[in-house]
Prior knowledge:
mainly alpha; two-stranded antiparallel ribbon
Amino acid sequence: MSKSVSTGDLISVKSTLVQTAKHNSQVVYKHYQRALAQWPKDILRPNVSFQNAMQRRIDRQTTPPTEHRDASVIANDALTTVPTAARFDENAELQQVNVLYSFLENRYTKKYPLSEHLMKPQSYPGYYENLVKELEEAPTRSWFQRQINKWKGSLRMT
């Protein structure tokens, strides 16, 4: 015996699915926000922000797509297809959030520590220490100090 499904039942199921998807995207969104709040600022390139780039991507992913009546549109006498937004995949997004957390927690540095031999090459044992020192000093240098360092570098090369 088959039971007929009413339009009200279909609308109810559809609204439940939409609410579940919305809840899932909100959970993922909160995880992203928490991870990005802990992400360190780039002092060498303050005008390029990883957080802003990720925020735009998250906003695009978690915003519900606008529905198109017809996927094909005729514009300028040419038939074109309107791209539709990618479907939200909660598991894939949670895996990506997990990767962000793994970088924040330095899981890979702990799992694969660098040996002393690698960090102090025989040809120039202080190379990495000097590099870190240089990177820490670079954002606070004045224009004049940068020009002097550029001049010193060009003299060294000749």
